[in-house]
Design a protein that fits this description.
- With 605 residues, the chain is mainly alpha-helical.
- The protein folds into three domains: 8-217, no CATH class; 231-257 and 264-386, Farnesyl Diphosphate Synthase, CATH 1.10.600.10; 419-444 and 453-605, Orthogonal Bundle (Farnesyl Diphosphate Synthase).
- The protein has 27 helices and eight strands.
- It has helices at 8-11, 32-48, 57-70, 78-95, 134-145, 157-163, 176-187, 210-217, 232-241, 244-250, 270-282, 289-301, 311-316, 320-344, 355-359, 361-380, 383-386, 388-417, 425-435, 437-451, 458-480, 493-496, 502-510, 513-524, 529-542, 545-564, 570-583; strands spanning 102-106, 119-121, 124-126, 148-151, 169-174, 193-197, 348-349, 352-353.
- Strands 4-1-5-6 form a four-stranded parallel beta sheet, sandwiched between helices.
- Helix 2 (32-48) crosses helix 3.
- The longest helix is centred in the middle third of the chain and has 30 residues, at 388-417.
- The two termini are 49 Å apart.
- Residues 1-19, 120-125, 258-263, 484-489 and 591-605 have low confidence and may be disordered.
Length: 605
Amino acid sequence: MATTSAGNDAAIDRKRPARRKTSHLKLVPPTRELREQIRLECQQLAASLNKTNALSKDDLETHARHIITQLNQPEGYVGWTMVLLSSEFFREQVAATPYERRLLLLPHCLKHAEGCPADYDEFGLDCRQCGACSIADFRARAEDLGYKVLVAEGSPIVLKIIIGGYVDAILGVACLNVLEKAIDKILLAGIPCMAVPLHSSDCRNTSVDEDWVSEMITVEQQTKPVKTQSYIHLMRAAGNLLGRDELERIAPRLRQQTDQNGTSDEQHDPIASTEAIAYDFLASGGKHSRPFITLATYDAITGGKATLTDGASYCESFSDEVRRTALSIETFHKASLVHDDIEDDDPYRYGSETLHRKYGTATAINVGDYLIGLGYRLVSRDAERMGHDVAADITEVLSDAHMRLSEGQGAELIWRDQKQRKLTPLDALKIYSLKTSPAFEAALLAGLRLAGPLDNYRKPIRQFARHLGVAFQILNDLKDWSGDKDNKLSRGTDILGGRPTLLWALGVETLNEQEQCELFSFMNEEPSAEVLLSRIGSLYKEAGVFQKASQLVDKYQLRAEEVVDQLDSESFRRLLYYLMETVLDRGSAPALEPDVVELHADASS
């Protein structure tokens, strides 16, 4: 049997391995006997682990490799073992969750490919009236117990359901490719979850150990489990800030008018219309990650109580000045989105027309300006209660971030308007550190200042935010070439939109003079999008641009980790590691072998 210490941290080397391809780690053990053997080892190892804190993806891989080595099995079974180990880690907590508070995810690929009569609705495959495959059996059994069931593999609605407060545990059946993508977002957040992997990922008549699925669905509490610390309560608290009722309570409108029936009448009042559009956009969508960062930082420094079992009640005790400060961070973010959409002429935001397309550019600019003013007002109105010095410090943090973000965006716009498209990697990294880092820094420093003085945090947090922001932006560059499902629906939008990127700068730096001229000429021609992307992509590959950029993501993440490791607060360190893992989600980024690169350009030099 594999052995380990009772504490997770003691058994894990925190040094992060270089990012690499993982397809070779997703083999499925071919025999039931071997699968059972691995599962038993995972059960025994999970029983010895400290379940107070969630396992990171790297923790899981280290433990899984230990099990595989003990069993003398090939490396390819590491992914399978990671899934089983994470399931056993949370088994007792899932078992203690009432059936009606559990969500079961089933994959559409378990259906019979030929002759399946079920149709898709907005929630996935509607197979309730059919009994032709195992999906219907699993679904019927789960729904009879009170589960919420979703037949839609990898649906983005899952995390929204969790944050919305409808369920407290997730159980899933999926292929290893899908489960790998889910680990960072769900497991690392401390959300109780279990999964049974499919036997293949070809999505055509695959199979699963059906008795494992049945056992997972019916698992019931045997003993009182140790609760893993979770960020779910803080996620829900951040989302609630933008709920209609809470938003109106903590930031009541000044101009809204109602008729005798209680119906809003702002559409008839031109003065109230700006406020109405701004509030509608503020509440319209988004991940609410910035107010989450502020609330979670405040909680981490004041004891981390919101991550414990009764974290929901602790979140309810947050003062209104803490809530309004967190809301102000989201207000500034939404203002920047309005202005960015105008500058890039984006047609859609959150599934609806962008404000400048819907109301006109002038009105949209004005709404963005209104949101900026609202953000400052949310902080200044609480100066008496939080203390004038605290309010002044938070206002300084926000204004500094606002100015630096504008400088970064301005540098990008000036570059886009130039005929000469030369750009050094150093210039690109400077733009990135200004465009993205201030938002992270402001959200963190605001939460810290609500909890106490900033003296010991200002410098390391600026360093951390810079490294994280640069890594995040480079990763976005890479995702743009594979189709970023989070932000963009098609590939190559940065090139097509004429935006400066590190990839472009690395290409210019690496290519010879003739190839540079060829690269520049593409931007002055008007070929089709596919031709343009094909030509530039070929030059990028020739210059090793994608490999170099991928390595730089790892480089800046490592620098961020080095800053975090020097901080005193254990709960704050854990939060910052969680932010790195979730913000730097490699999900749709190309899997690239690292290529050794020495870069003279450095954003922090």
